UniProtKB/TrEMBL annotation:
The gene is TBC1D32. Interacts with CDK20, which promotes CDK20 stability and function. Interacts with FAM149B1; may play a role in cilium assembly. Required for high-level Shh responses in the developing neural tube. Together with CDK20, controls the structure of the primary cilium by coordinating assembly of the ciliary membrane and axoneme, allowing GLI2 to be properly activated in response to Shh signaling. This is Protein broad-minded. SUPFAM superfamilies: Ypt/Rab-GAP domain of gyp1p (SSF47923).
Length: 1298
């Protein structure tokens, strides 16, 4: 380019002009210089004509001519160096050639030359810019009239080149423009001045000294009657809002707000009144709405960036806005003659007050808004409250008048006229949304109460919420809601409900606003009227009831709201005198289900209303305390009847015939019926969230259908309901705690799906899936990918479920297993992952070690339940299989010695074997860890492959029990001497027992405890008032029962008990035979009191399915004395406490109602565990929440603890104290002790809840550090608070029919 000529320069200028003209719109639309540069840099990506520009073609040709030969040479060189067909790829080649080219000398010379040439061309272009500007101005003067006529619709910049912005806007020129904008100047001059102002760069205008004067001048110009000039002023304001910084736009905004303020305050302007309405096609209204709209658009945009500027700017914007909105014309005029205030026009453009919502969103702006509202502009709030009250009063006065404003659908037709009534309604909607947003925040609520001019009393926060609530059912009826309607709903009820929903979601706000008796009473008013069928009732539409139910359901889903509905502020839960909201809602729901409300007979909306109110009840009965209140209404029966009726209807729906007109109607009808049926099943399913609710669900006979529905929802990954946060975990765990629930889970396919999913993660799926990335090698015993399935199995496999799923069933033990044979049931999991007693099973696993460790970990958790351990041992000889596997893991070393190979599997097996063969509490046995230690000896614990357990696992602390009686014991026994006054003696015994437990609990054990229990129970049963069960005559002798057999589980339990008793030095030789006879007598004694029941459940087919741990414990307490034990049991069986301590006592008992016996659910679950959950929620709420979030239930773990009398969880002395406490102080103390244990474990529970292994921790770990005596004071407080309710319900188990 050394010989660059003038012709070349002119040609390049032309090319560059063409390019710049083509991208002019893109560049001028950029908000900053940096954005314009970005647009040019990415022009090839965004402009499809990029390669057609002459300038681009020129550059491409120039580069090719300069560097083309070098590029081709380099490419040939690279190609020759590569092997044929094994190149590194085209992309790599291009990158290499590009890099070499850019580093070459030729490239640098070309860039230097091209830069010099383009500098010459650009400088030449700049020198012609001034000439272009002068020429364009002359053209502009000739066409100014044409431009004025269409300027309002012109969204582009003027014809000046965008490069004109590079000129400095001088101070003198701005002063000249200010003079030209004077109202005395000719119209053309003023138009040209504002046009020049619009063309000037914002930065130049801002830097001028006359900027403040310009703002004042603009305020005056906005009042100009000329529409064209006015529009140009507004365009300048809009451009300033878009392109200028906040401190500049703030001046423009406040000027515009000040102009509007003066406009409304001036009596000279023709502002519409409520009587005349607003015609939006009227020129004056058009210009006014344009100004308000510009103001509103800026209001909605400015919160996104005003935080980056000083607070004073924001305060000026907020202040000018509130000052404008606080303008109120003469209030003494009639409403119809009232001149419209500014807020009417703002509401017309922003009906739902979006501007206020955005201003209140951030704390930075919210504090300023609330401060100004409180100090200077509270009239804005007062006016909004006044408008809501006026609308409500008009609703009251015109309830039968259908002309009262309710939004009507106008299709696509644009509305041009708004009547006074419509304007009042629009202002009401704006006020409602503004107040609703204000109430969310604490400082906003502090603005109440407000004093209104025309009212004597102030309007408090509660008054306002009552007003909102009553608006739902006092406002005019609107078109029926449909499930398919997606259009925005502006009906009063919908708008109020939307506001109340938002308030419900804010806990603090809901507590202050909604959880008040007057507000709840306002919600219940239409329900009360409908129940009484008063004259007011028919005016409450189905739609209003649905909205009321929606809000009530949200209130009931929160603890504070639920408490208010259940008990009211007066703590009254009676359904007779002044019934609380819960009672009224339950009664109304029951009437709806029974279709006992004549107002709604035949209504299409009735199923929706039913569903809405049952949803409210569901929020209550899915909690223990809520169910207690609602039990008298038998809602489970009503819902079950409705479901059965709907189920029959769904079966009768005719099959649509092709071509028939009724196809669509039949299809819609069937969809509605199916949806209603599923809704009812969901309602029934929610009873399973609590232990007693599960009993009620089972008694309806619909548990199988509900669990199948739950599984279908689970498969779709759907939640239980819109108010549930943690899915189906709790419900599944609750259901799995009973035999019938486990059977329902099996029949539904849930267990099959759970195991199939586990196998797909652990081993392989049913089908081969292409693996793009290999799985990482697991480093944890239970890999994170398997953790969810592992916890699912742990939740599922309570003893009732285990017995139902595997009881009396053999494992397959096949000679060969296919690699693709996927387990489908619990038996298969035991066969394939736990009892690996053949080479075929081992070879069938892809990941043998990982899968077997998974099985051993699962076995370890299962064996923590002693009944499950005995069942597995009796059916599958688990310990023998594990011992054999350990034997096979022995290595022969020199000298004939044998040593165990230490690996992951042998360590896991050793831990399980110790747990299986050793019984004891936290201080009575030592369990080896399941992880290796650092150092020379990574596993110092001895392994074994025979039944004899190494002594190193036996605790040295508790091997001996001191039975000698000291002076304290003698004194204690003397205090327990029977007196003539039996009632006083019993109370005295209890007092002395409590005092001893506080001061010296260790003496209540051994012979002392046995003697105390004998005396106490003997005397207690002498008084018929203290006996709960009738006396049963039993005369069998040892010879009568010797030939009777015990179950294999009982036989293994006897061996375990005797082994534990000898370890504690409580039993002597021959104890095994004595215990066998005790259990046989006990079984025969209880059999006399059993009823004949026909059931498909395994647990109800004959004898009690587990071991009798209470009798075993009592046998140890009595130091192995058979006669004492049997006498005590016969006496003790008459007491209420026996129903909860001695579980076999009520197995298919004739003393229980038949439906409860047939359910297979023990009172310890539906009564005891139910109250444990109820009290836990109140006493230790954090623990209750941790259970809920973990998908586990306190009822399941407490049922396990109580069933086995805390064996393996507490030391023997604490087990004795647990039994003694329940016998001396009452069966409710069993519940209190469980609460104390969970309170004791609070920190551990919270920790393991976060690590997502809570259920494993609770089942595997003993209760370290817990002593019954430490919590006596706390338990006495629990007794004072809860005993009347608990004991009453415990006594009702014999007659309970609900």
């Amino acid at each position: 380019m050394a010989n660059f000529s003038s012709e070349d320069e002119a040609r390049l200028q032309s090319m560059l002009r063409q390019l710049l003209q083509s991208v002019k719109e893109k560049i001028t639309g950029a908000p900053s210089l940096e954005c314009a540069e970005e647009i040019l840099l990415h022009l090839e990506e965004t402009d499809e004509n990029f390669h057609n520009y002459e300038f681009v073609k020129y550059l491409r040709q120039y580069i090719y001519s300069t560097l083309g030969a070098m590029i081709e040479e380099e490419m040939e060189k690279c190609t020759s160096d590569q092997n044929q067909g094994e190149g590194s790829g085209y992309d790599t080649l291009v990158q290499h050639v590009t890099k070499v080219t850019q580093e070459s000398k030729e490239y640098k010379e070309m860039m230097h030359s091209l830069k010099n040439v383009m500098m010459v061309v650009v400088e030449s272009l700049i020198s012609k810019f001034e000439e272009d500007q002068i020429r364009n101005k002359e053209v502009q003067k000739k066409t100014v009239k044409e431009k004025c006529s269409n300027y309002c619709t012109d969204n582009c910049s003027d014809s000046d080149s965008s490069f004109n912005q590079s000129y400095k806007f001088s101070q003198g020129k701005l002063q000249l423009l200010l003079e030209q904008l004077d109202p005395g100047q000719p119209k053309e001059v003023r138009l040209e001045a504002i046009q020049t102002l619009c063309s000037a760069p914002p930065s130049d205008i801002l830097n001028c000294e006359n900027w403040t004067t310009l703002c004042e001048k603009l305020t005056i110009c906005l009042s100009d009657p000329d529409p064209a000039f006015n529009d140009r002023i507004l365009k300048f304001c809009a451009q300033t809002f878009t392109l200028s910084p906040l401190h500049m736009t703030k001046e423009i905004y406040t000027s515009l707000a000040r102009h509007l303020e003066l406009y409304f305050l001036s009596g000279e302007n023709h502002i519409p009144t409520l009587l005349t309405g607003v015609d939006v096609t009227h020129p004056n209204v058009i210009h006014l709405l344009k100004k308000v709209r510009l103001l509103n658009e800026y209001q909605k945009e400015v919160p996104s960036f005003w935080i980056r500027h000083p607070e004073k700017y924001m305060e000026e914007i907020v202040g000018s806005t509130l000052s404008l909105l606080s303008i109120q014309h003469d209030q003494s005029l009639l409403v119809s003659q009232k001149i419209l205030d500014p807020i009417y026009f703002l509401a017309l453009l922003d009906v739902k007050a979006v501007w206020f919502k955005k201003w209140m969103h951030a704390y930075y702006s919210r504090t300023v808004v609330l401060r100004l509202l409180e100090k200077k502009y509270k009239s804005v709030i007062t006016s909004s409250v006044q408008q809501c009250i006026q609308y409500f009063e008009s609703c009251e006065n015109m309830r039968s008048d259908e002309n009262l404003i309710c939004p009507k659908h106008c299709g696509n037709k644009q509305k041009t006229f708004y009547s006074g009534q419509e304007l009042q309604y629009i202002y009401f909607v704006h006020s409602l949304c503004l107040l609703g947003r204000l109430l969310i925040y604490t400082q906003g609520r502090k603005l109440f109460p407000v004093k209104l001019n025309n009212r004597k009393d102030s309007v408090s926060l509660t008054d306002l919420l009552v007003l909102f609530t009553r608006l739902i059912y006092y406002s005019p009826s609107c078109p029926k809601m449909t499930a398919t309607a997606h259009a925005e709903d502006y009906s009063p009820a919908s708008l109020v409900t939307e506001v109340l929903r938002i308030l419900c979601d804010q806990k603090e706000c809901a507590t202050e606003c909604l959880y008040k008796s007057p507000v709840i009473d306002a919600f219940l008013e239409p329900i009360h009227n409908l129940m009484k069928e008063t004259e007011a009732a028919p005016n409450c539409s189905e739609t209003a009831l649905i909205h009321i139910a929606d809000v009530l359901a949200r209130i009931a889903s929160v603890e504070e709201g639920l408490f208010l509905l259940l008990y009211g502020e007066s703590m009254n839960s009676s359904k007779d005198e002044n019934p609380t909201g819960a009672h009224l809602i339950a009664q109304f729901s029951k009437k709806l289900l029974d279709e006992d409300i004549s107002v709604f007979s035949g209504s299409e909306m009735l199923p929706v209303v039913k569903g809405a109110f049952i949803s409210v009840c569901r929020q209550m009965y899915s909690t223990c305390e809520g169910l207690q209140v609602l039990i008298p209404y038998n809602l489970h029966d009503s819902i079950a009847k409705a479901w059965k009726k709907t189920s029959l209807l769904s079966e009768r729906i005719p099959t649509p015939v092709k071509g028939s007109d009724s196809v669509s109607s039949v299809s819609q009808e069937s969809q509605n019926i199916v949806a209603w049926e599923e809704n009812l099943l969901d309602d029934l399913l929610n009873f399973a969230a609590t232990p007693r609710g599960l009993l009620l669900l089972q008694k309806t006979g619909s548990i199988n259908d509900c669990v199948t529905f739950m599984f279908n929802q689970y498969a779709k990954k759907l939640q239980v309901s819109r108010h549930k946060k943690f899915g189906y975990g709790v419900v599944v765990t609750q259901v799995a705690s009973t035999s019938a629930g486990a059977a329902a889970l099996r029949n539904s396919g849930f267990i099959n799906a759970l195991i199939t999913e586990l196998w797909a993660i652990l081993e392989c799926g049913r089908d081969d899936v292409r693996v793009t990335h290999p799985r990482p090698t697991p480093v944890d015993p239970i890999d994170r990918s398997c953790q969810k399935s592992f916890l699912g199995l742990v939740n599922l496999l309570s003893y009732p479920a285990v017995y139902e799923l595997i009881g009396n069933q053999d494992i397959p033990n096949k000679s060969e297993y296919s690699l693709r044979e996927v387990p489908t049931c619990i038996i298969d999991i035991i066969d394939r992952l736990i009892i690996l007693n053949s080479e075929a099973k081992i070879r069938s696993l892809f990941n043998y070690e990982q899968s077997h460790i998974f099985g051993l970990r699962l076995l370890n958790v299962l064996c923590c339940d002693l009944d499950t351990l005995l069942l597995l041992e009796s059916q599958y000889q688990v310990s023998a299989v594990l011992l054999n596997a350990q034997e096979e893991n022995v290595l022969e070393i020199d000298g004939g010695q044998r040593d165990f190979i230490i690996d992951g599997l042998s360590v896991e097996r050793n831990h399980v074997l110790v747990r299986i063969n050793l019984i004891g509490g936290p201080l009575e046995r030592i369990l080896p860890p399941r992880a290796l230690q650092k150092g020379n000896d990574p596993y110092p614990w001895p392994m074994f492959s025979s039944c004899s357990l190494p002594n190193s696992y036996l605790s040295q602390v508790t091997k001996r029990v001191d039975l000698k009686q000291d002076n304290d014991i003698g004194n204690l026994l003397s205090l327990f001497k029977i007196s003539d006054k039996q009632a006083e003696w019993v109370e005295n015994c209890r007092v002395q027992f409590c005092q001893t437990m506080r001061t010296k609990p260790s003496i209540i054990s051994g012979e002392v405890l046995a003697e105390l229990l004998e005396k106490f129970v003997l005397d207690l049963t002498e008084n018929p008032f203290d006996c709960y069960f009738p006396a049963v005559e039993y005369k069998a002798i040892d010879a009568n029962v010797k030939n009777e057999s015990l179950s294999s589980v009982q036989q293994l339990g006897i061996k375990m008990t005797v082994r534990y008793g000898k370890f504690l030095n409580l039993l002597k030789d021959g104890a095994e035979n004595d215990l066998t006879l005790v259990l046989k007598h006990s079984e025969r004694f209880l059999k006399q009191q059993q009823a004949a029941i026909k059931s498909s459940l395994r647990c109800l087919q004959g004898r009690y399915p587990g071991h009798d741990w209470f009798v075993s414990s009592l046998f140890l307490i009595m130091l192995g004395d058979k006669e004492k034990t049997l006498i005590f049991l016969q006496k003790f069986s008459r007491l209420l406490t026996s129903a909860f301590l001695w579980l076999p006592r009520l197995h298919i008992s004739k003393y229980l109602p038949t439906d409860i016996s047939e359910s297979g659910i023990h009172p310890i679950y539906f009564c005891g565990a139910h109250y444990i959950e109820m009290l836990l929620k109140t006493e230790v709420p954090l623990v209750f929440s941790a259970f809920h979030m973990s998908g586990f239930t306190p009822s399941q773990i407490c049922q396990q603890w109580i069933t086995q009398c805390f064996w393996n969880y507490l030391d023997w002395i604490e087990i004795c104290h647990y039994i003694a406490t329940c016998i001396f102080l009452g069966p409710d103390y069993q519940i209190y002790i469980c609460i104390c244990i969970l309170k004791h474990l609070q920190q551990d529970i919270l920790k393991h809840s976060q690590s997502q292994d809570l259920q494993v921790f609770l089942k595997e770990e003993a209760l370290h550090g817990f002593r019954v005596s430490d919590y006596f004071e706390y338990m006495e407080n629990l007794e004072q608070n809860y005993r009347p309710m608990l004991l009453q319900d415990m006594k009702n188990i014999r007659v309970q029919s609900t």
